[in-house]
Amino acid sequence: MEPKWLEWAKQLQAISQAGLTYSKDVYDLERFEMIREMSVEMMAQNTEMDETLIRDLFAGETGYATPKVDIRAVVFKENKLLMVRETTDGDWSLPGGWGDIGHSPGEVAVKEVKEEAGFDVKAVKLLGVLDKKCHPHPPSPYHVYKLFILCDIIGGKPEEGIETSAVGFFAEDELPPLSVARNTESQIKMMFRHLYHPGEDVFFD
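Above: the chain's sequence. Below: its structure in token form.
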């Protein structure tokens, strides 16, 4: 589903990042800088992102380029799914965020639910590992793997956090407007399939 120009821009960025990390020849380094600049221009021409911001994002990455990891907690209560309203776009998503250094995926899921929704949970099962490019998300400068982790509520109460403005539980047929940069309708429905069929295999792209 990812547009071809975005795939090329990411590949050029990955090539330039690896080249700038491992090359020693001054002329090769200059060429890899040119390749990175091409990827920045491609991204800026095809998105609404500011070119300076894109350049800063890419310039901040060093070493061998690898996908980023986004972790989403899946929490059900009375057959309804926990969601939070994001302050950045006003739409709704599963609690979650980037993986943190020093935390396991389960620990990140638990932490994000507490910070964004107020509940204490325990992580119990991996439901899916999805490649963001295979799903109808808006264009993103990063290649992202999305981990969906089932969690059970063990305490706490609904409470918004710094990045969220509301907390709610929603049935499959009454979903709120979704923050599609974070989760899509098809992904949410995939999570409900796990609710209805607990023996469902872990989904992966």
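The chain has two domains: 4-59, 68-204.
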